[in-house]
């Protein structure tokens, strides 16, 4: 323990990184299983509508933060999103171009259908 009044610098740590799969190693089955869950589709829709990267804490979701973290992990492992740190904040972005190249039309079809479902739900007052 240092003498009173003496501060000791914290050791530098390596930058935080998040592992992402190469989309050539991701199967269609894995992507479809990731996108079948309504909370995960909600995350994808919110990212698409935002038009910019979003931090984990800014999503409007009907689940706890720990459950939402699980959903982010599933989406990341399926190659749908990319996560990275800005300081201590974990940011999320859609891998739109990569997904389009690997699975042409899939993400745009899911997003279009999700938006139509959301609009229908809102119109019915649900």
Entry keywords:
126 residues; single chain; three-stranded antiparallel beta sheet; mainly alpha; 11% strand; 3 strands
What does this molecule look like?
The chain is mainly α and 126 residues long. The chain is 47% helix and 11% strand. The chain contains five helices and three strands; from the N terminus they run ααβαββαα. The chain has a three-stranded antiparallel sheet with strand order 1-3-2. A hairpin with a 2-residue loop joins β2 (81-86) and β3 (89-94). The protein is globular, with a radius of gyration of 19 Å.
Itemize the secondary structure elements and their pairings.
Elements: H1 28-35, H2 38-50, E1 54-55, H3 65-77, E2 81-86, E3 89-94, H4 96-102, H5 106-123
Antiparallel strand pairs: 1-3, 2-3
Helix pairs in contact: 2-5
